[in-house]
Every structure is written in C-alpha cells, then in structure tokens.
Amino acid sequence: MWQLIKEDVACVFERDPAARNLFDVLTCYSGVHALLFHRMNHWLWQRQLRWPARFIGNISRWLTGIEIHPGARIGRRFFVDHGTGVVIGETAEIGDDVTLYQGVTLGGRTLNKGKRHPTLGNRVVVGAGAKILGPFIVGDDARIGSNAVVLEAVPEGATVVGVPGKVVRCKDENARCLEMVSHGSAETTVKPVFDAYAVADVDEDSNEPSLSELQQEIAELRLELAALRAEQAGAMGRTGTQNS
After folding, report:
1. I want to staple 127 with a disulfide (CB 3.0 to 4.6 A). Which of 111, 134, 188, 198 is the partner?
2. pTM, to two decimals
3. Beta-strand runs (E) in 59-162
C-alpha cells in the first residue's frame, strides 16, 4: 500500500507542470486526496465492510468534489487532474498510468447488478467533461477528447472525439482501429506517452470525414449537371435543325 501511495504522488510531477514540490501535491491536489481515500475504502469494501466504505467515500466526495465508488478497481499511478465533478462507478476498472480530467464520468446505462461500467486499459487519457458509458473496454493508449460521449468499445491507440464518440486517429497499425476511421485515412503517427487533455499537437477534427464526403458528392453532382446541360444543348440543337 505504501508503495502504491508513493507512486500515486510521484506521477503528479510527470503529468502536471504546475506541481512544485511534494508538500504542494500532498496538501493542494484533490485528485491525490480522493485516491488516498479510495485506496482505504476499496480495502474496506473487499472485506465486506460496505457501509463504512460508502460513508467514508461520501466524506471524500464532500471534501474533494470527486466521487469514486469503493467497489471500483483502480491501478497504479492513477491521476485525476483538477478533479471537480469526476464520477467513477462501482464496476469501473482502471488500468495503470491512467489520467482523468475534471467532469469525467465512467458510468453505466443499465440497472443490472452485474458489470455495467467501462474498463479503461493502461495509459488511457480522458479529457475534461468526457462521458464513457457502458460495460465495454477502452483499449491501452487510447485518448478520449474533451466532452466526447463514448458508447462503444475503443480500440487500442485510438483517439475518440465528438458526440457520439468517433475514432479520428490511430497510434499505430492497429487493424481494428483503422477500420473505424472514415475512409481509412488515419495518419498512423507515433504519439507521445501522455497527451494533456487527450489533445495531441496535431488537429483532430471529427467533422473532417463528413466534409470530405460532402465535397466528393458535390463534385459528382457537378459532373452530372454538366452532362445534363450538354445533353439538353444537343437536343435543342437537333430540334432547331429539324425546324429549319
């Protein structure tokens, strides 16, 4: 447990340039406080001490603005930046080196008692305000853009933006990822280990595929219109010759 806590604190310096020193992190970072509470609450939850775990979790929510159900499984070096409004459901599972920003929800869409919240792989970054809803897997190294609403599984190394979430970029030659990108035109560039707010240096426009489709359709319509005009002009020419 002590090693986990040391890693949870140390990872803040890797992902937040505003972190100045250890005292600053331990006293001023609500994400660190919420995770410390959760480590204890989850230990109680696993030992069937359900009410104390929920009660202390409620106190943690009052103090930090971050709600993490004691039943959620969270890996190593987890970081919630800013944190206000983050909600993590009971059956959510989070891998190692994951980063969430403010307003993120890992929620469910059913009232079933079983698995109903998402599973996040390793090194996933979820931008501010994103909603990941359902019992599916978000693959390793995935990036979920701010305010995206994700309702289905995300391949490894994919970047998802928009409402509903759409894959717009792939980290590598992941076949399933490339199939989900419109026209298979994703740039397979190597991304850094961490993207702040799940935004890379290159622009990622979820409307770009739609605009390309519209441009192609307009070009086809122009060709058809030109052909119709030529046909009409030829018909009028033949009619004029017959009348003369």
Report:
1. 198
2. 0.71
3. 67-68, 73-74, 79-80, 87-88, 93-94, 99-100, 105-107, 119-120, 125-126, 131-133, 137-138, 143-144, 149-150, 158-161
Tokens of 10: 């140390």
Cα of first residue to Cα of last residue in the chain, in angstroms, is 100
Three-class secondary structure of residue 156 per DSSP: coil
Predicted local confidence at residue 184, as pLDDT = 46
d(CA 40, CA 225): 70
Residue 188: its pLDDT value, please? 43
Given a cut of 50, whether residue 51 has pLDDT beyond it is: yes
Residue for token pair 């995206």: 148
199 vs 134, higher pLDDT: 134
Both tokens of 116, joined, read 């109903």
List all residues 6 or more positions away from 17 whose beta carbon is below 8 Å from its beta carbon.
none
Distance CA 57, CA 84 (A): 15
User: Which amino acid type is present at position 7?
Assistant: E
Degrees, nearest 5: CA angle 227-217-205: 155
Which amino acid is it at 208? E
CA quadruple 211, 213, 215, 221: dihedral, nearest 10: -150
Structural contact between residues 33 and 62, judged by C-beta atoms closer than 8 angstroms: no
In DSSP notation, 122-146 reads: TT-EE-TT-EEESS-EE-TT-EE-T
Count other C-beta atoms under 10 Å from residue 78's C-beta: 26
- Which pLDDT score is estimated for 112? 84
| Cross-strand partners of 119 | 93, 137
In this prediction, what percent of the chain has a pLDDT beyond 70? 82
Tokens, residue 196: 């702040």
What length does the chain have?
A: 244
The amino acid that residue 102 corresponds to is Q
